[in-house]
Hints:
Elements: E1 2-11, E2 14-24, E3 29-34, H1 40-47, E4 55-60, E5 63-64, H2 72-77, E6 79-82, H3 94-104, H4 110-123, H5 139-151, E7 157-161, H6 169-184, E8 188-192, H7 196-202, E9 205-210, E10 213-218, H8 220-225, H9 230-239
Parallel strand pairs: 3-8, 3-9, 6-7, 7-8
Antiparallel strand pairs: 1-2, 1-4, 4-5, 9-10
Magnesium ion binds at residues 40-41, 161-162.
Amino acid sequence: MIEINKVHKSFGDLEVIKGVDLTVDKGEVVSIIGGSGSGKSTLLMCINGLEKIQSGSIRVDGTEVHDKGTDINKLRQKIGIVFQQWNAFPHLTVLENVMLAPRKVLGKSRAEAEEVAVNQLNHVGLGDKIKVFPGTLSGGQQQRMAIARALAMSPDYMLFDEATSALDPQLVGEVLDTVRMLADDGMTMVLVTHEIHFARDVSDRVAFFRNGLVHEIGTPDQVINNPQKPETIAFLKSVS
Ligand code: ADP
Ligand code: MG
C-alpha cells in the first residue's frame, strides 16, 4: 500500500503540497482530480521519489521513499508511471523500446526481456506493432506503448499523470480502455485525470485536490455525484 502522511513539498519559497494525507490500499484505484497547479503532478513525483519532500512521510509497502537509506531505484521498479507523453527512442522498434528497461534495469536476457515485452504489448493491444518504429504510431498507440513499457517492469503500482490529455479526443477511449483493463486486473493505481466520467467509473475513491491539499475525498458517488464542499462543486461545474 501507499501511505502518504502530512507531506509538505516546496519549490524554493513556493509550497505546493501543504500537508497531504492519503492512503492507497492494495488493489485500490484512487483518482486525483483538481485544477491546474493544485499540486497533483508534484504529488505523483514525490510518491516515486523523483521529487524530494520537506516533511512528512511516504511509505510504499512499508518502506519510506524519502529515507536516505532507501534504495530508491529498487523501490521505483515497483512503481510504474505514465505521463502525458513519453518520448520513445525513435530509432528503436516498439518492441526494443519496451525491452530496454527489463534488460538494463532488471538485467534480463534478450530472450526473457523479449518475452515480457511481447506479452505486455499484446496485453495493451499492440501485438501487431512490435516491429514498427514509434513515430509511425498514433498518439493513443504511443500511450499504450508507454503503458506496456511500464508494465514490462512488473510493477505493483501504476501512477498515471493525465495520460490522455495530450491526445486527440477520438484517441482517448483506447487508452482509457487499457487503464480500465488494468483496474479490472486488480492493479493498484493512482490516476491524475481530467476525465471525470472515467474517474467516476473506474475508481474506488476520488480525491479532489485544491491548493496543495486533499480538499474532499470519498467514493466516486460521494465526491463526483454528491460533492459536499462548494469548491468541489465549482470545480466539477467548470469541467463538465
Ligand atoms: P498540477 O499537476 O496539479 O497542475 P503541479 O504539481 O504541476 O500541479 O504544480 C503545482 C505548483 O508547483 C504549480 O504552481 C507549479 O508551477 C509549481 N511547480 C511544479 N513543478 C515545479 C518545479 N520543478 N519548479 C518550480 N515550481 C514547480
Ligand atoms: Mg499536472
